[in-house]
Amino acid sequence: MDKVFLYNDNIGFCGILDHMGDDLAIVNSARVSFNTTHEALTDRDIKLIKYLYANKHTSPFEHCTIKFECNVPLFVARQHMRHRTWSYNEVSRRYTEVDLEFYTTKEFRPQAKSNRQASVHDDILINPVLTTVVGDTQDWTTRADEAILLHTQNSVKLYESLLDKGVCREQARMVLPQNMYCRYIATANLHNILKFISLRDKPGAQWEMRKLAQYMGEVVSELFPHTWEAYTLTTTI
Amino acid sequence: MDKVFLYNDNIGFCGILDHMGDDLAIVNSARVSFNTTHEALTDRDIKLIKYLYANKHTSPFEHCTIKFECNVPLFVARQHMRHRTWSYNEVSRRYTEVDLEFYTTKEFRPQAKSNRQASVHDDILINPVLTTVVGDTQDWTTRADEAILLHTQNSVKLYESLLDKGVCREQARMVLPQNMYCRYIATANLHNILKFISLRDKPGAQWEMRKLAQYMGEVVSELFPHTWEAYTLTTTI
Amino acid sequence: MDKVFLYNDNIGFCGILDHMGDDLAIVNSARVSFNTTHEALTDRDIKLIKYLYANKHTSPFEHCTIKFECNVPLFVARQHMRHRTWSYNEVSRRYTEVDLEFYTTKEFRPQAKSNRQASVHDDILINPVLTTVVGDTQDWTTRADEAILLHTQNSVKLYESLLDKGVCREQARMVLPQNMYCRYIATANLHNILKFISLRDKPGAQWEMRKLAQYMGEVVSELFPHTWEAYTLTTTI
Amino acid sequence: MDKVFLYNDNIGFCGILDHMGDDLAIVNSARVSFNTTHEALTDRDIKLIKYLYANKHTSPFEHCTIKFECNVPLFVARQHMRHRTWSYNEVSRRYTEVDLEFYTTKEFRPQAKSNRQASVHDDILINPVLTTVVGDTQDWTTRADEAILLHTQNSVKLYESLLDKGVCREQARMVLPQNMYCRYIATANLHNILKFISLRDKPGAQWEMRKLAQYMGEVVSELFPHTWEAYTLTTTI
């Protein structure tokens, strides 16, 4: 498992760069309380992992870390970076104007009626026809995805015009829309990664966000299979 | 001191909502180490505050907190929220589409040559004339501020067209540019507020960011005058 | 509510020094998401508090803080200070040798058989008779509480002998037993205070620790009654 | 480098259990800002590490972690665990009574006159003769180290008497002195490890604490040699 594309646009991705620890390391960190160490996982150890997770003895999971590389739209990155237990390093648009990329989709979700915040999470996906969306005097129709694409291109043109005239990058970037991709490195310990997944891969979370959290869940299930099982047992209860 | 506008647009502001503690509380927190308490600040107490700050005995400053309300452009809010020791609550564009506001300016800074990240921080402010910036087939000229305003209006039109056709807010917001204002509540303890100011009000930091940090410095200087003096003594050294 | 003694010895106490916020402030912090503010708590606001707490929307509770003063035995202070979201300032035994106090009790709990970590939490309290406990060559009997008292006095005598001979406090303190009282100031935001209480006032937690957590619960229930109700509803489910 | 004894008693030790990252990883985390990656360290990369550290661009150092095992006296462990950016797992004296060990020394430092907190950090080491230190009615003389040893033994005897009579471990441990060894696992990211070292290996810090911080510095200098050089350049300025 190296890196997966999260959406249908071959741009948004997440991958694992490095990690520290495994299920055995968690057990041995926990067994410090008993002053013993194991060389290999036993059945009792696997039970111990489940017991620890179910009973919120979270500290043994903090000695394992995973380092990810993410490339996600700004509105997803913003939600990720609200988690204050992670470390982040991000491509700065104050530094560079190269490699500007933008998220686009043909699949739009209807607004949920009951939950003001959410979208409807079933198969009703729409790509409506819009009229008079871009420009001042024009009046033509286009699909939503094309309208967004055109809007994005106009944003980049304006951005580049500003740079051409000598305006600093840190100001010019204000015209770039929030479907702009952000590339960054994100590291956290296993306890906080699981907490992140539990909050960001659940009904009510934005679909684009859930895709990132789900990928991280797959990484955890490969690197820490018994911890992942303990997590799924606890969160489905 | 209640609330000040940060820029020239009568939109961006910061204000203080609440706070806990004063210089005397800091001294008494520190004097717990000596097992004594004072009723009023003495000259020795003021010296103690300076000694504590200069010698990185930061814990006594952590028992004081300030709660701010901020309304700043997204690119400023993003920098603020990278500070993981603060607590934030933000108007969610997944919830509401009302009160959309955008940052505009007539004063653009040139790109710095020496520092790839920064702008030139002197009086050379420009508002260049751009050509062919918005729309597909047009070819006209306009000042940068007007071009940005027009771009912003087009973004909102597209956003509203998407909502009109039933697209969920959480997706539609992707077309909104990063000069969109974010309103949020932000709370931190005094130690972390001073750390924030030291990192965000210095040469190399973005001007729009520095305005926020400078206002917070004014709040600290009123509520905790001796701590503020200790801070300025240490950071100018 | 100012300060209560936690045990039967008129030494261990906890009190509130300061606080910021109330239930209304929590609601208004949360309503920033909706871009509205209330002047007084409505029934819907009270429901909102319960909804927020039950659904782990914890950030609105982070803008409220409480500042406590604690005086508890070292083995309790150690558990408290493992909570890394609090701020602490403590009487340092490297600074001062005055006001040494020690925890004593006549009520000892039997070791639990099923849970290796816990004691039996019912009314079986013992104060057993011990033989040959202190000194080298003696052979006499005494109640546990008296034996501990004598041991504590011997510890202090040894500590003072070391100081008298010029040994530094930071080394001499190593002979002081863990029933030594620690006085400190502790501040946290409401979210983390409730998390602390949920982990430290539950079956399996040490009785002396629970007393501290229970007092903090009383403080919360006075200052933030609706939040406290939301907390008790969620934790008893 | 596996594990070193910190003091002269062949008990207190620190060792490295695992780590993630190297100097190259730091550079590549930083270069995300520029959107580039290197395969091997160049001279410019080494300069970049120094620039990052000197200018407090600390986030690239947060993606590296080191996991230590420590066995230090309680009064040292207590200072270590005040650092809230680390993760800890500790042998609990509520769980087990085996392997009780205690710190002893023949080398006592005089109390500093000028700094109430510190000891004199030169070669004047003393092991004074004490009188009437242990027990109630006795009157004999002994060296400080022997007095402490005897005191420790008496503490353990009392502890075991309490356990023998059925008193729970969580209460009985209150009689154990603070030279009791604590064994624990401690993990932090490189940025916070360096911050720890800068605060705990400096004049004024307790010698027993500095030994731990110095060992950690040696680990950093082997695993991250250029970062260590950047650190030493910055802290000696």
Put the structure in a nutshell.
Four copies of one chain form a homotetramer. The first copy, chain A, is of the alpha+beta class and 237 residues long.
Main beta sheet of chain A: 5 strands, antiparallel
Number of domains of chain A: 2
Amount of beta strand of chain A: 15-25%
Given this structure, which CATH class of the largest domain in chain A is correct? Alpha Beta
Strand ordering within the main sheet of chain A: 1-2-3-7-4
Q: Which fold name is given in CATH as the topology of the largest domain in chain A?
A: Gyrase A, domain 2
Based on secondary structure, the structural category of chain A is alpha+beta
Low-confidence stretches of chain A: none
The coarse overall form of chain A would be elongated
Q: Care to count the β-strands of chain A? A: 7
Q: Please report the distance between the alpha carbons of the first and last residues of chain A.
A: 29 Å
Order of helices and strands of chain A: EEHHEHEEEHHEHHH
Number of helices of chain A: 8
Name the CATH architecture of the largest domain in chain A. Answer: 2-Layer Sandwich
Radius of gyration of chain A: 22 Å
Layout of secondary structure:
The structure is a homotetramer of 237-residue chains.
Chain A: E1 3-5, E2 13-20, H1 23-31, H2 43-54, E3 65-73, H3 74-80, E4 87-90, E5 129-131, E6 141-143, H4 144-164, H5 169-172, E7 181-189, H6 190-200, H7 207-223, H8 225-236
Helix pairs in contact in A: 1-2, 2-8, 6-7, 7-8
Please give a handful of descriptors for the protein shown.
homotetramer, 237 residues, Gyrase A, domain 2, five-stranded antiparallel beta sheet, two-stranded antiparallel ribbon
